[in-house]
Amino acid sequence: MGVLKRDPATEPGYAEMKKNCVEREGREEEFEGFRHDESLRRPDLAPSRWKNRAYERMGLTNSIALERHRDYMARSNGAEAERLGVVAERREEVHRAELCVRDIQREFEAAFRGLPFEADRLTVLAWIESHPAMILSRPVSVDGLVELTVEDILDAPSRSAVGELQPWMNKKDDFYKEMLKRKPVLDDDDDGPTEDEIELRDPTLKDVKKMLDSIGC
Asked: What is the pLDDT of residues 121-132, one digit of tens each?
């Protein structure tokens, strides 16, 4: 194996490489001890020579410093490449997830556009009251809310019913309280509304009765 040679164009000087080795290995105190000892032994030498002699006593020759520098750079570049690979993979996962969300959103919008604009009020309330989202437990989103799916609205009586179901499914107790207020409570001895009361509530009932009488029913 030949002697390692430093590339001046891409690699730092030997003094810097040795200093970096000492810092990476946590040997600063050891280095300072050797440097101080050399200053006492050879006060006639320049401070830079004290440092070089201290590095030599620590086993940090030029070739070893260069070898450790290249090993460190290779490991650093490998770690950076791995990090970039992980980042790229995560970006791809996010991109796929975004595409999936867009597809679901488009499918939902297509199903919604196919619904009637309005429906009978009682039909809407009955649909909401019996909807699985109002009865069964479901996982919630990151904001703590239950969200509608495409399957939830396929049999919706109208677009407005979908708009009402979304908030009610997150406030089920409030919805059923409102429904209880709307339902009349009969006494035990109450036979229900009389024929006149029913006719008063629905004036069209009189016309229906006349039509039935005319055809002999």
From this structure: 889 989 998 899
What are the residue boundaries of the structural domains of the chain, listed by start? 14-84, 114-192
Decide: helix, strand or coil at residue 156: coil
How far apart CA 83 and CA 90 sit, in angstroms, is 11
Supply the DSSP string of 167-203, one letter for each residue.
HHTT-HHHHHHHHHHHS----TT-----HHHHHHH-T
Sequence-distant (≥ 6) Cβ neighbours of residue 115 within 8 angstroms: 153, 156, 157, 158, 159, 161, 162
Q: What torsion, rounded to 10 degrees, do the Cα atoms 13, 19, 22, 27 define?
A: 160
Query: Rounded CA gap, 173 and 127, in Å?
Result: 16
Side-chain-side CA neighbours of 49 within 13 Å: the count stands at 9
Q: Give the tens place of pLDDT for each residue, 11-51.
A: 899 999 999 999 998 999 999 999 999 999 999 999 999 99
Helix 28-41 to helix 14-24 angle (10° resolution) is: 130
pTM, whole model, 2 decimals?
Answer: 0.42
Q: Distance between CA 52 and CA 22 in Å, rounded? A: 13
Nearest to 162 by CA among 199, 127, 203: 127
CA 161, CA 130: separation in Å to the nearest integer? 13
115: left (phi over 0), alpha (psi -120 to 50) or beta: beta
